[in-house]
Specification:
Blueprint lengths: L17 E4 L26 E6 L2 H9 L8 E5 L2 E5 L1 H5 L6 E2 H7 L4 E4 L4 H17 L3 E4 L3 E5 L1 H14 L1 E4 L4 E2 L10 H24 L3 E6 L2 H8 L7 E3 L5 H6 L12 H9 L5 H6 L2 H8 L1 H11 L15 E11 L2 H22 L5 E8 L9 E6 L2 H5 L9 H15 L8 E9 L24 H11 L7
Parallel strand pairs: 3-6, 10-12, 11-12
Antiparallel strand pairs: 1-9, 2-8, 2-11, 3-4, 4-5, 7-8, 13-16, 14-15, 14-16
The structure holds a DNA duplex.
Length: 471
DNA sequence: TGGGGTTAT
DNA sequence: ATAACCC
């Protein structure tokens, strides 16, 4: 069996094999422990993989239209190229580049409109669902990233290896810093097995969905995400604990730290904190006064690579929204028309989901020269008789919803004074399962997970994929 | 900069 | 309801 995807640029370096004598009664791998073995977050240490699909929207478009495969391709929303394939990147196109700049850099650039997210959203959930077949702890981050806590799968495989006595154990993919693996170190062994599982996850995503992506394997979410980007298209990287400091110190600016965004960066810079080392060394008490105890402690722990946040299964979405941006919208009639455009698609999505929303929100962005960032919103509970109508299609739910949304609009905007909007968004949230049957089940994609043969069979399939036969 | 999402306050 | 974060 070959590595998997055709993208041949891969030269999976350093796949050395290690002959590993098992336990021998020494202090090698961890004891099996009784019954429920190391659950996620136990003292044993977790194994977390972060999976990040390569230029996701562009990949989806290339699958929809294979003729685009070998061309430089950009996905356009309004006048922005939001992402592009690697052919385009070679020629200087970057994410979030204006169409004008992109065409200048690459006149042959092919553009597809990506304002309708439906194909991306659907593919995205297929990926999450697929990962959910391997393991229940899958957390989405945006449409193209997932965290998977594979601690339990690693544990199972460790037990199997111990029973077979001798096994060939080797890293799949890269090791950060080219650090040598010590197979007498239990933590190393678990992470190495994690790298094999990560490769299987990527392999499944490729063979079943045709998508390539990167993976990072580490002992927590934060580190797995950080190390994921080390080798970029379609490769994976394992982080061993001894290289953790090197990884985080490699971040030249604090805004590269996931969890430290624009606002926090501004405040940290006022305090003279410019890089991760500054943050590590900064007095905690002062930081807590500036950011609050909770945020301060969290980001300072991040600066050491510590992150105890669990991989929280995302399950079905918490909200459904649809938005449109435009140059100008300045009359009530136009607002109503825009809302009427947004609703049908949204309602169809909610109908497909099957749950009932109990809250609606209208969000606007007003034109302004300096604060293009800020949005305002008004929300209200849906009257029960409207909530009810989400199950059925026939009745006209649109008119009363539009009326409701226009009331929300008038709470924000005095329609007697001139206004200039550049965005409208409608969001339905507070989703509840229909009172239909008995239990409050989770349904959605986690539902059909165990056909008769159950989880044992599923896991075995995973385990078989890249078993380098022992000898 | 788009068209989405989440959680915390 | 807003503010922060993520993509």
């Amino acid at each position: 069996m070959e590595p998997f995807p055709p993208p041949s640029e891969e030269e999976e370096e350093e796949e050395e094999d290690w002959l590993c004598p098992q336990p021998a009664g020494g202090a090698a791998p961890p004891a099996p422990e009784h019954g429920k073995s190391a659950s996620a977050g136990s003292a044993a240490g977790r194994v977390v993989v972060h999976i990040d699909l390569d230029c996701f929207y562009a990949q989806v478009e290339m699958i929809r239209n294979p003729k685009l495969r070998d061309k430089p391709l950009g996905v356009q929303q309004k006048y922005i190229v939001v992402t592009c394939n690697y052919e385009a990147r070679k020629r200087g196109v970057k994410k979030m580049m204006s169409v004008k700049d992109a065409k200048e850099k690459c006149p042959q650039l092919v553009l597809v409109n990506g304002e309708d997210l439906t194909p991306y959203r659907e593919t995205s959930y297929k990926v999450t669902e697929l990962l959910g077949e391997f393991c229940p702890l899958v957390e989405r981050l945006g449409f193209d990233e997932n965290f998977v806590d594979i601690t339990e799968i690693v544990e199972k495989r460790l037990n199997q290896l111990q029973q077979s006595g001798w096994s060939r154990v080797g890293v799949a993919g890269h090791v950060y810093n080219h650090q040598a693996v010590n197979l007498h170190d239990a933590t190393h062994v678990r992470l190495v097995i994690g790298s094999q599982i990560a490769e299987e996850l990527r392999g499944a995503i490729y063979t079943r969905l045709g998508l390539t992506g990167c993976a990072g394997v580490a002992s927590n979410k934060f580190l797995s995400k950080l190390v994921c980007g080390t080798f970029k298209p379609n490769q994976q990287t394992l982080l061993l604990p001894e290289s953790c400091q090197d990884l985080i110190r490699s971040l030249d600016h604090i805004q590269k730290v996931p969890g430290i965004g624009y606002k926090t960066t501004q405040r940290l810079e006022m305090l003279g904190v410019r890089n991760v080392c500054d943050l590590q060394a900064f007095p905690s008490a002062v930081l807590e006064k500036e950011l609050g105890v909770s945020a301060a402690q969290r980001i300072q722990k991040l600066s050491y690579g510590e992150d105890d946040s669990p991989v929280t299964p995302s399950g079905p979405p918490q909200s459904f929204s649809d938005e449109d941006s435009f140059k100008k919208c300045s009359s009530e009639v136009e607002v109503k028309e825009k809302i009427e455009e947004l609703l049908p698609n949204l309602l169809a999505r909610i109908h497909r989901d099957g749950r009932q929303p109990h809250t609606v929100r209208l969000t606007i962005r007003q034109f302004s020269t300096d604060k293009w960032f800020s949005r305002e919103s008004r929300q209200c509970a849906l009257p029960p008789h409207l909530s009810q109508k989400f199950g059925k299609e026939s009745s006209n739910i649109i008119s009363p919803l539009v009326d409701l949304l226009m009331k929300l609009f008038r709470k924000m905007i005095d329609v007697d004074v001139p206004f200039h909007l550049t965005l409208l968004s409608v969001c339905f949230s507070n989703l509840k399962d229909l009172p239909s049957s008995k239990k409050g089940s989770i349904g959605f994609y986690l539902k059909h997970m165990s056909p008769p043969s159950g989880s044992g069979k599923r896991v075995r399939e995973v385990e078989n994929v890249s078993q380098g036969e022992g000898s």
